[in-house]
Design brief:
Elements: H1 2-5, E1 12-15, H2 22-27, E2 36-39, H3 45-50, H4 65-76, H5 80-97, H6 104-112, H7 129-141
Parallel strand pairs: 1-2
């Protein structure tokens, strides 16, 4: 990672390993304070930030951008109590969106927001009715849709 971070075209890394020790361990290897560590897993975003990360490349933010932005802002200002509270609200959405292979869940959720169609091309297959119902209910509970 230190060698990658030394490349002038590389400014950061997306980490989707769910290993929350990585931002701490890898920051010790990197001389620059400007190198950015981003979580690639929505459910670990707050904990990743608490361990030195600076954000998340988020799937859920496509569906709930305001809540995800508020959570990231709370992390950036060190208000991890607020960030955790927001993450707890978002966790059912994270789970529902990934109940079946991605990107079918986020496409369906975005279709409920009027942003796209929920059609999928192989190898992604359409969601089951059960998962569609779960996503719709969670989005309703979060007041993302009526």
């Amino acid at each position: 990672m230190a060698r990658i971070a030394s490349l002038h075209h590389v400014i950061g890394v997306k980490d989707a390993t769910c290993d929350l020790s990585r931002p701490i361990r890898e920051s010790l290897l990197i001389a620059s304070d400007d190198f950015v560590f981003l979580s690639g897993e929505d459910p670990t975003a707050v904990a990743y930030n608490a361990h030195g990360g600076q954000g998340c490349i988020s799937v859920t933010a496509n569906v709930a951008p305001a809540l995800c932005a508020e959570m990231q802002t709370a992390c950036a200002t060190g208000d991890f109590k607020t960030a955790l509270s927001l993450q707890q609200r978002l966790m059912p959405l994270h789970r529902a969106l990934f109940r079946e292979p991605s990107p079918a869940g986020v496409k369906y959720a975005c279709s409920l927001l009027g942003l796209c169609q929920d059609t999928c091309r192989l190898p992604i297959v359409p969601l089951t009715a059960k998962t569609k119902t779960e996503i719709k209910q969670v989005m309703t509970d979060l007041q993302l849709i009526p």
